[in-house]
Amino acid sequence: AQSVTQPDIHITVSEGASLELRCNYSYGATPYLFWYVQSPGQGLQLLLKYFSGDTLVQGIKGFEAEFKRSQSSFNLRKPSVHWSDAAEYFCAVGDAGGTSYGKLTFGQGTILTVHP
Amino acid sequence: ETGVTQSPTHLIKTRGQQVTLRCSSQSGHNTVSWYQQALGQGPQFIFQYYREEENGRGNFPPRFSGLQFPNYSSELNVNALELDDSALYLCASSLMDNEYEQYFGPGTRLTVT
Prior knowledge:
The complex is a heterodimer of chains A (116) and B (113).
Chain A: E1 3-5, E2 10-14, E3 19-21, E4 24-26, E5 32-38, E6 44-50, E7 56-58, E8 64-68, E9 73-78, E10 87-94, E11 104-106, E12 110-115
Parallel strand pairs in A: 2-12
Antiparallel strand pairs in A: 1-4, 3-9, 5-6, 5-10, 7-8, 8-9, 10-11, 10-12
Chain B: E1 5-7, E2 10-13, E3 19-24, E4 31-37, E5 44-50, E6 53-57, E7 64-68, E8 74-78, E9 87-95, E10 98-104, E11 108-112
Parallel strand pairs in B: 2-11
Antiparallel strand pairs in B: 1-3, 3-8, 4-5, 4-9, 5-6, 7-8, 9-10, 9-11
């Protein structure tokens, strides 16, 4: 069964600093990969997605992520964090083999705190 | 373009009761998925509906059931509520030929006492 691990439960950075959130997945083939952001009391907003092709994907709000097959990773990055980026971030995997229609498997989430 | 909407926002029920949660899909989307997000956890897939039929299901008991209507809106029904059902319930819509690219609503916070 596919699984997603986000090793960092909580990360604190200063405003303007760079950010990298880690995501590792377990899956037999190349999965579909996603990053979502959730602000308190809100639903999930899709930041970016990877289906195939270029392993560096660009998303909204200045975020990017890189798929590394050899490391089974899909880390999220941002060169300069803004205070409004404080939220919880979720990495998710979809079954590209199509045996679990529509099922996204999420990691536990990483809470990002931004200091002024 | 209208996003995904859910109702109600909050709900308090007693153990053993039944609850119905509602979801309206994003304009143009024909597929709806439901997730349960317990406090401090990532969302867990409950099921997905397409053409008014269940298209895939996660590891949830049969007392979790759903409906999809011709206008693609959806309901999640939970019978015989248990304390552990307390969670944020999220609805997500997508297109069937791209069912993994899902757009989420704000959720319904269910508290079971």
